[in-house]
Design a protein that fits this description.
Layout: H1 2-8, H2 12-34, H3 39-69, H4 80-100, H5 107-111, H6 117-151
Helix pairs in contact: 4-6
Length: about 160
């Protein structure tokens, strides 16, 4: 188990996951090209997506995360109650971007449905994610307060 970690830098499950991710991306690229897609646009999209993520999005959400966490070294466990719904909402926004912004010209003719509902659905899902996260935080806080109350010895006056 140590030899692959030394060579690769992470464990075998990470290597398998990365290989599967690259295989899936390659498969998607091949399918796009087989469907009569423009080779230059497909390659440009893959390279552009990687560059936009690494040069724009990663520094942006790192700055936002650092602002939420506070100074380095300070442990803030509550930040995950913002991180998780924000991440899921951001992924849905990224996935549905053309439909939310109504730039998907071929969606309505192909599906027979209007893209007008996607912005409202995304906003509703985002609100539900943050409400569920807040409820989870409230339940966790109440449970930890009950435990602290039970663990505290009674006052003897």
């Amino acid at each position: 188990m140590r030899l692959p970690r030394r060579w690769y830098g992470a464990g075998p499950p990470h290597l398998v996951l990365m290989a599967a991710s690259f295989a899936l991306a390659g498969y998607a690229g091949v399918r796009l090209l087989d469907a009569g897609g423009d080779t230059t646009l497909v390659v440009l999209w893959f390279v552009g997506a990687a560059l936009v993520h690494d040069l724009v999005l990663l520094p942006l959400y790192t700055l936002v995360d650092r602002a939420l966490c506070g100074p380095p070294g300070r442990r803030n466990e509550l930040v995950n109650f913002v991180r998780v719904p924000a991440l899921l909402s951001g992924l849905l926004l990224l996935l549905w971007w053309p439909l939310i912004t109504r730039r998907a010209t071929r969606y309505e003719p192909a599906s027979g449905m209007s893209p007008d509902r996607f912005l409202g659905n995304w906003l509703l899902i985002t609100a539900v994610l943050f409400v569920l996260s807040a409820l989870w935080l409230a339940a966790r806080t109440a449970r930890s307060r009950r435990r602290a109350t039970k663990a505290r010895p009674p006052d003897s006056h």
